[in-house]
Amino acid sequence: MTKGLRQKKNTQVKQALYDAAMELFRQKGFDETSVNEITERAGYSRATFFNHFRTKQGVLRLYGQRLQDLVENLLDQADSATSSLELIRQMISVMVHEAEKNIEEVRLICTYSMLDPNYLSNPTPSRKRLFEILAELVAKAQQEGEIRCDLTATELAMHIFFLYQGVVLAIVTDIDSSGSLLHSVWQFILQGVNSESHSN
C-alpha cells in the first residue's frame, strides 16, 4: 500500500471511530460509553482504537485537528496579496462557520472537554497550533502597520481568540447565530486592534 493510500485509510478508520464515539456520547453520555462499545459500533478492534486515540478523551480532539487542517489549507491557498488582517478575519470566520455546521458535535466536545480538569491548563496540540497561527498573523499585521503595536502579538491574539471562543459559545448555547454576531464581533475586534485608534 502506498503512503497516500495508507494515509487515506488511516483517516477513514479514525473518522469511523470518531463518528461511532460521538453517536454513543450523544445516546449514553461520555462517562457511560466504553471503548469496547465504540470499537464494536465502528467495526474495529481495541488495538485499532488505541492506535488512533491514546485515550477516550483523545476522541474529542479530532475536531480540533480538523479545524487546524481547515485553517492551514486556507492559508496555503490564500493569495499572496491578501493582507494579514484579512487572513485573521478569514481564519475566525472559517472556524466559526465550522462550529455552526457541526453544532451538535461542538456542543458535546465543549461539554465533556470542560469536565476534564486538564483541559484549560494543558491545551491540545491543535489548540496550541491555532493560537500560534493567529499570533503569527497578528505579528505580521503589526509589521504591515494594520494593527496597534503597544501590545504584543501574543496579547492581541489572546484577546481575539477569546472573542472567537465567545462567538462559538453563543452559537452552541443558542444565544445567536453566526451571521450578525460574527459581523459585530469582527467590528469590535477592529476597534480593539486598530493602529490609528491607539496611536497615542
Please outline the helices and strands.
Elements: H1 3-28, H2 35-42, H3 46-52, H4 62-77, H5 84-101, H6 103-114, H7 125-143, H8 153-172, H9 178-193
**Which CATH architecture of the largest domain would you pick?**
Orthogonal Bundle
Count all strands and give the number: 0
> How far apart are the first and last residues' alpha carbons, in Å?
62 Å
What helical percentage do the residues reach?
over 70%
What is the overall pLDDT average?
88
Largest sheet descriptor: none
Any idea of the CATH class of the largest domain? Answer: Mainly Alpha
Please give a handful of descriptors for the protein shown:
about 200 residues, mainly alpha, Arc Repressor Mutant, subunit A, Tetracycline Repressor, domain 2, 9 helices
Describe the structure.
The protein is globular and about 55 Å long. It has 2 domains: 3-54, Homeodomain-like (Arc Repressor Mutant, subunit A, Orthogonal Bundle); 60-193, Tetracycline Repressor, domain 2 (Orthogonal Bundle), CATH 1.10.357.10. It has helices at 3-28, 35-42, 46-52, 62-77, 84-101, 103-114, 125-143, 153-172, 178-193. The model has no long low-confidence stretch (mean pLDDT 88). The protein contains 9 helices and no strands. With 200 residues, the protein is mainly alpha-helical.
Task: Describe this structure in a few short sentences.
The chain has 200 residues and is mainly alpha-helical.
